[in-house]
Design brief:
The protein has 390 residues and is mostly helical. It is built from 14 helices and 8 strands. It has 3 domains: 48 residues, no CATH class; 94 residues, Tyrosine recombinase, N-terminal domain (DNA polymerase, domain 1); 190 residues, Intergrase catalytic core (hpI Integrase, Chain A). Helix content is 54%, strand content 10%.
């Protein structure tokens, strides 16, 4: 809930947004000051939308051009071959952005993209050309969807040249996947020998449900061994032109959260601590102590995209499916939690989702799988005692 903007003595406009309550039950609010009342109202609306949907409005408000710059920097430059990079660059910077570049990311609608694709055909472009433009725009917006920069990918309702829409109009996202227990065991065994940092990352992620940015930002000061919790207070984000930046998480009930840690996880953390102390002794003044739990041997951090690349290289080296990404471990945590606990409301708190609906929409299908297994088990149990005769 936001307050009405009020004019300050300096002539500016100040507005407050109430973001829930902290772990002690105290009300949390964020405030900002703007030159105009309209700017204040717009900021308040964005904060409330961010709270309700989980969408990162800081990025949703970028122009499509700014977003594509960021996407190239974080994904295209790192993940694709030089040849593919050049093709993408030519299409986006010489054609797509000239038409769609000034639109805000959150404002892009299926009609905008459909109109752009139609214009290619009217200029004499082949169906194959239209399909290629369709594919790479879809790739860009799918990444935005995965990063929670947009609420719904507009490409879901764009008619593919020479075909139909990807799927019917719906606000339901594609069901997320999780690593099953057998594959998870194989993955952890593989990365333990492949990359110590990656093993530490994956083990902690599947035990806490923290996302990539939270994992990289976690510090030893956030750990409380006596209480058995880790507090999510800092995240690492990549900012174009500045590199990786560490920032405090918003002090809202759905973000500034405590995650319980088991005795085995606490011992795992102690193992990392011991190795770090050994490296400090070995490197001396060359060790850069930033109090980070996950870091390089010299104490420095890895950039988010570097960790993503580590995961990609590991899955390729080990022959694992390409849907194993940095976020899959968060989904796997949710799957394992629901298999034991069945409490979506509690899962919402652990993951830091702003809304129960978001958590339920994303993970309720894991509960349905458990229900099906339970139904089959009950049927077998009853059948062993009493069988129905035809």
């Amino acid at each position: 809930m936001a307050s009405d903007p009020r004019k300050t003595k300096a002539g500016n406009w100040e507005v407050f947004v109430y973001m829930g309550r902290d772990s002690d039950g105290k009300q949390i609010r964020e405030s900002a000051t703007f030159d105009t009342k309209k700017e204040a109202q717009r900021w308040a609306r964005d904060k409330e939308l961010e709270k309700e949907t989980g969408i990162l409005m800081e990025f949703a408000n970028m122009t499509f051009k700014q977003y594509v710059d960021k996407w190239f920097d974080e994904y295209v430059d790192e993940q694709l071959s030089p040849v593919t990079h050049d093709r993408y660059y030519n299409v986006f910077y010489h054609q797509v952005l000239k038409v769609l570049g000034r639109l805000k990311l959150k404002e892009i609608q299926p009609a905008h993209i459909q109109s752009y694709l139609t214009s290619i055909r009217k200029r004499g472009g082949s169906t194959k050309t239209q399909q290629y433009h369709y594919a790479i725009i879809s790739s860009a917006l799918t990444y935005a969807d995965e990063m929670n920069y947009i609420y719904q990918n507009p490409m879901q309702n764009v008619r593919k040249p020479g075909g139909k829409t990807q799927r019917k109009v719906t606000k339901k996202k594609k069901k997320v996947k999780a690593i099953n227990r057998d594959m998870l065991k194989k993955w952890l065994e593989f990365v333990q020998d492949y990359d110590q940092y990656l093993f530490d990352y994956c083990y902690i992620a599947i035990n806490t449900g923290m996302c990539l940015e939270e994992m990289i930002g976690s510090r030893w000061k956030d750990l409380n061994f006596s209480k058995g919790i880790i507090t999510v207070e800092q995240v690492a984000v990549y900012v174009t032109g500045r590199g990786t930046v560490f920032k405090e998480t918003p002090k809202a009930a759905d973000r500034f959260r405590n995650i319980p840690i088991s005795d085995s996880l606490a011992n795992f953390y102690r193992g990392i601590w011991k190795r770090q102390q050994e490296m400090k002794m070995h490197l001396g003044d060359e060790y850069k102590d930033h109090n980070l739990i996950l870091c390089k041997d010299d104490g420095e951090h890895y950039a988010p995209r570097t960790v993503q690349n580590k995961i990609r290289k590991a899955r390729e080296a080990g022959g694992f499916p390409d849907w194993i990404t940095s976020h899959i471990f968060r989904h796997t945590f949710a799957s394992l939690f629901l298999a034991e606990n069945k409490n979506i409301k509690e899962l919402q708190k652990l993951l830091g989702h702003s809304s129960y609906v978001i958590t339920a929409d994303t993970y309720s299908h894991f509960l349905k799988k458990d229900f099906e297994r339970a139904r089959n088990d009950i049927s077998k149990a009853v059948g062993s005692v009493f069988s129905v005769q035809d």
